[in-house]
Fold these 4 entries.
Entry 1:
Amino acid sequence: MTAADVPSFDVLVAGGGMVGASFACALARLPLRVAVVEAFPFNHSVQPSFDERTTALSRGSQRILSTLGIWEQVAGEAQAIRRIHVSEKSRFGSAVITAREQGLDALGYVVANRVLGAALWDLMQASPRIELYSPAQAVEVSQNSQSIEVTLTGNGAQRLSGRLLVIAEGARSGLRDALGIDATHKSYDQAAIVGTVEVSMPGDGSAAYERFTADGPLALLPVGASRYAFVLARSAEQTESLLALDDRAFRDLLQQTAGFRLGRFGRLGKRAAYPLALTQADQVHTDRAVVIGNAAHGLHPVAGQGYNLGLRDAATLAEVLADGVHASSFDAGAHKLLENFAAWRSSDHRNVVAFTDGLVRLFDLPGTVTGMLRGAALSAFDVVPGAKSELARHTMGLAGRLTRLARGLPL
Ligand SMILES: Cc1cc2nc3c(=O)[nH]c(=O)nc-3n(C[C@H](O)[C@H](O)[C@H](O)COP(=O)(O)OP(=O)(O)OC[C@H]3O[C@@H](n4cnc5c(N)ncnc54)[C@H](O)[C@@H]3O)c2cc1C
């Protein structure tokens, strides 16, 4: 293939999962030629991003998806969260955050990853400026001063050239490593076991629960009439035996961990496990390449922040590109532009990583005294004026400098 035969784009996106596809959708209305390379189409049985999981979307994420025109397709199948109840098993003290006290109709929404995937891929497929290469894997990368090139496998060995490469390959990103962007991985020695369970007392089905236990946290998210999705974090060495338990034994364990606020647990859905680690890229860009989503920061799911943080990466990068796109000298991979992106994102990355990692460590500390202090802290948090609003603003994705998409303004 000669250089003239290599298709060229403004932006190449490696990875069309939750964050890569969201980013491509954010570019759909800009006058940019975009290529998305994804190893597994959204409806493939082993698609690793749009799988059986559900995602708790922050209020800010819902606004971004709404501005992009994706929310309309998802809303009918999304469950509103109007109350979040945080407690620790066997301790006094709990905290409740409600949408009403924040002056909102919902704190966030729960959506099945497959539903979100279908909506994102529909939009990409309908966008004349977005070209999808899937199934195909981006395996090699090379740069020069004017462009960056990736080689694909799985779709015939093919090369694509771009002014900017956006790496959204997830935490184990090969292109990030190939470009010399170092990343640290810290295993939590835990896995998240996820699935769904029927409950006998769902209330109005709009409450989410986070329960910390000595063995790891449990999150329960409403997903429909009388059904909750669970995310149970347990030590890695227990994972196999927990997955091997029959439904009855697993349900008993879940019930024991959750207590009876939702009544009796009934039928269980399929279970799956995800090893948990903290991944942090040392930098978010190098010449003509930028990392977003889990490729930049892979988090423990305890606070449900991973996709929300990645979507803010996507919305910010799209805005930085949109701001320059009409200039005659526009170059999507220009150093200055990538610096602007990095500067805008750094405090959000730092805060969310520290908050999520801190939460895992806080509730991992053994001992009666630390346990009592946590109980007291939860109770105090519940009554100290302003504390809840401040935390709520952050976890709802409404703190700091908001992108135009998060403010409901198109790019
Ligand atoms: C149990 C669990 C529960 C979670 N719950 C929540 C939640 O409630 N709220 C929330 O905000 N976040 C949650 N998260 C985090 C969220 O799922 C991730 O942050 C999100 O999936 C990251 O998306 P991503 O696109 O960056 O990476 P990924 O989801 O890993 O997607 C990467 C994509 O890139 C593709 N790919 C990889 N390499 C290549 C290549 N070389 N060429 C082509 N394609 C490639 C893959 O096939 C995949 O589609 C949860 C995570 C877990 C594990």
Entry 2:
Amino acid sequence: MNADAGICYLDGAYLPLAEARVSVLDRGFIFGDAVYEVLPVVAGRMFALEEHLERLARSLAAIGIAPPLTLAAWRDCLAGLITRNGGGNLSVYLQVTRGVAPRDHAFPSAATPTVFAMCRPLTMTAGISVVNAVTLPDNRWLRCDIKSTSLLANVLLRNEALRCGAYEALLLRDGWLTEGAASNVFVVSDGVVRTPPLSDRLLAGVTRGLLLEVMGRGGRPCREEAIDERTLRGAGEIWITSSSRDLLCVGRLDGVAVGDGANYPVASAVLQDFITYRDQRLGSGT
Ligand SMILES: Cc1ncc(COP(=O)(O)O)c(C=O)c1O
């Protein structure tokens, strides 16, 4: 698929992505003054839409933009987008900017938020995939809980990981794990699954939350607990999670094998439970 193929949604209209235009004075373009979401669509059905829209509402509130659409209007808007793109397995990207205004850091007294959404094909997870990661210093701002489009630091970090031959950067702030450049992180040691607790240092990943729920229901020992560098490096398994890739295992961290470097028994079991949980929710329309 070409990068600009498909139909997108922009401020109330559906149109070919290649024809969509926003003003150069849009504050999303000028300041990165915008928030976004990415959610999976499986066989034409949106998964965890409410969780994504709740997080969008929190991001909008954090930056003082009034919600441009109700939950029902979002549902209709995205359903129209999915239908027009042929359904199937998709990753939906949506973005809300503060709108168009003369360039000034201060919030404009009147601006209408720009609402944009597009989608692209999504490859569904069938089983455990293994990627390599490197550790890098977390040099981002201190409001990583806001899903802001101002992602320059994340872009540089992820690019540095790729330059090192790895897929993801695992970020350390003052010796403590926060998250990945575009993912949350879980570690498994002595049969216990741990992930850093929510704070303004990391994004409340929807996949992170759902995995904790699935593990809690299954009675699997899991904790939201601060993880230091030593624990990270000594882990038997390391997972990175996101809505578009579900759960990936880290095979090598900074070139060193994680655990025995070949087996991911806890991840395999948890991913299977997660897929079952997702299928159940999709089947029941939630
Ligand atoms: C910085 C960051 N943390 C965590 C995540 C995972 O969040 P989610 O599971 O909601 O996709 C992402 C996803 O893109 C991300 O960019």
Entry 3:
Amino acid sequence: MTQSDRRQFLSGAAGAGLAARAMAQASASQKKLRVGLIGAGGRGTYLGKTIQQFTEQGEPVELVSVCDIYQPRLERAEVAFKVKGYARAADMLKDPNLDAVIIATPDRQHVFNTMEAIRADKDVYCEKPVTHWAQFDRLKELVHENRKLKRVVQVGTQYVSDTVWERAGEQIRQGAIGKVVHAQSCYFRRGDSGEAGMPIDDPNAKPGVGVDWETAQADAPRREFTVSRLFQWRLYMDYSGGPLTDTYPHMLTPVVKMLDAGFPKKVVATGGRFYYGGLRDVPDTMDLLIQYPQGMDIAFLGSFVNYVGIETLVRGSEGTARKSDLAITLEPMKGVNKPRQELPSDTQTRGEGHSNLAIAHIKDFLNCMRTRGTPRGDLELAYRVQVPLIMAMQSHLHNKVALFDADSETIQLV
Ligand SMILES: NC(=O)c1ccc[n+]([C@@H]2O[C@H](COP(=O)([O-])OP(=O)(O)OC[C@H]3O[C@@H](n4cnc5c(N)ncnc54)[C@H](O)[C@@H]3O)[C@@H](O)[C@H]2O)c1
């Protein structure tokens, strides 16, 4: 073979390789993805409906099964979605044609549901928070397991699917505001309807009669059954954690992503149940300070008692990044010769925009299932967000400072 023959042969082979890859990608993008739903409560119903809307719009995705440990909800979901129902996720996961599951169970179940699903070779869209605050060791185990299994795992922090955070992060890394030393963000809202207002489907519900109370408790301390503990689980530290773990992942995730923040060095937190009473034992207010080893603090504040928030912003040695509903603006400080940049948001983050973000987030997951790419709210990012939140809860509960050792991935209270 002459050199030119060989070049022609090689470029032909490379061309054939490229064509084969393009065909494989095209057929992967056309493959109908079959999705199951675990947890058919408020959020699960919304997510299941969203998948069915995608199907109606002609997207190659289909909801094929549903699972719930509360029989009346399972039966309702089977009828509403017209799909096969399972009382146990393990049975649903045996379906070899199932590609992925959406997990919308209470917080304490997430890590078990996700581990079981990835071990059954399914991709996972898991609602936030990725684990309950008392499950640090299990979280670590899950992350390490998925580093081996490489399933696509998206955590349901949909705010991160506004690409403005990535675009601002890129500019910040290129020095648009100098060295970042400080950031602040928040999650404030008014009302306890998300906890005390959770509906009690049946005030006479009893364990064993369509209620799998044993599974519902996961690894929580064993308690006597009450309908409130089953249906209003967000009121209780055993199954939830108040704003810190319920809503803070929403805003902390994009901030951590934008700043490319790794694991924290130190976290302190303070807060409590300052206003709401009744059966609630989770805090309604929580403030935390997170310090990173490169010399940067994030202050995160929030409460469910009053909706007046603080601005999300990042302070650098040469300028400031400010987040509004519409954009992230990078502003140089006085005397700094750098351009002011306004990076528009993909969608507004309130009202209509909120559900637009959820739709973008689910689509990002489905797309990554096809490309085997990394979704915007992937498990590694969720780990970097959940570690400071778990440390904050421990700091608050024990009145101590929480330190993190990134080499051994351990938390120490001092
Ligand atoms: N991303 C968001 O904006 C958003 C919004 C709302 C809720 N969420 C998250 O969604 C999750 C569910 O919240 P919700 O308000 O829908 O709660 P919910 O109580 O309405 O629904 C949870 C359902 O899971 C079922 N369940 C419990 N353990 C199960 C198990 N092991 N297997 C199968 N089913 C099980 C329950 O019976 C219940 O029907 C929470 O983690 C919450 O943080 C996220």
Entry 4:
Amino acid sequence: MLTAKTLRPASRLDAFIRRIAAQRACLNAAAALIAPLDGPVLELGLGNGRTFDHLRTLFPARDIYVFDIEVAAHPACIPDNAHMRLGDFRESLPGFAREGKPPAALVHADIGSPDRARDAALAAWLGPALVPVVRPGAIVATDRALVTVDWEALDLPAGIVPGDYSMYRVR
Ligand SMILES: C[S@@+](CC[C@H](N)C(=O)[O-])C[C@H]1O[C@@H](n2cnc3c(N)ncnc32)[C@H](O)[C@@H]1O
């Protein structure tokens, strides 16, 4: 991609900064959108813990349940055991649905990997799998588009390149 400012192809550094900026802008926008809604936040993809840390600054009063197949985060960004769900999403998310927790007001799915085919299959599975754990009006922000659910696709914050992030409102 040629950037307007530089008229040179985007480097991997450019793409990384764009993606991380999109992520923060979408989470900040989501915070305003869910302000009137009760419910916890679900974080799919603890990774290094960066977005979990951002979410807990945005939502100090909400429960934030975090899902990952492993805990490999910065030591300061590891959820307590009561809020961590370890295992493959395909098992931990249905398991969470069976726990009977209040439906989530926000889901952040940061599930991307360098393997686009693997990500597409996971994202196709994820949309329907989220239906039992979200409330009407909930916001879903994700780095991989959810094409298998009929939710309202929201406009992205100014300056975000479509495809870098997606936001939906659950009907
Ligand atoms: C892009 S990283 C998340 C980065 C994180 N949000 C951060 O800000 O540091 C994606 C994470 O998803 C996890 N993941 C990918 N596929 C998974 C699956 N099927 N089940 C559970 N975790 C998975 C990986 O282990 C990885 O930690």
